[in-house]
Amino acid sequence: xxxxxxxxxxxxxxxxxxxxSKLYLLIKAGKFPSPINPMIRNGKFSSLTNLESxxxxxxESEVESWIWETKKQINKFIKKRSNCFDVINxxxxxx
Length: 95
Hints:
- The chain contains 4 helices and 4 strands.
- The chain is mostly helical.
- The strands form 2 sheets. It has a two-stranded antiparallel sheet.
- The longest helix has 27 residues, at 60-86.
- It is globular.
- The model is unreliable at 40-45 and 47-51 (pLDDT under 50).
């Protein structure tokens, strides 16, 4: 059985380098994985304390997938932008 690691907002923020408020904006826009609801376990409501019921957690593998996908998009953008400079010979000393 595979273990699922749950990350707190502090851990998620540190891993992705984005502040909490920005993370929640990305979640609202559908651009970042949503936290899991700790109140529901195995399809049933659990009896958690008030502190636990207000906490949010993210599945580590979903956060890691988002990081890798975002990195691929950034690299693709950088490569596309750097191809624009290939047309211009910056080292041309004839002019």
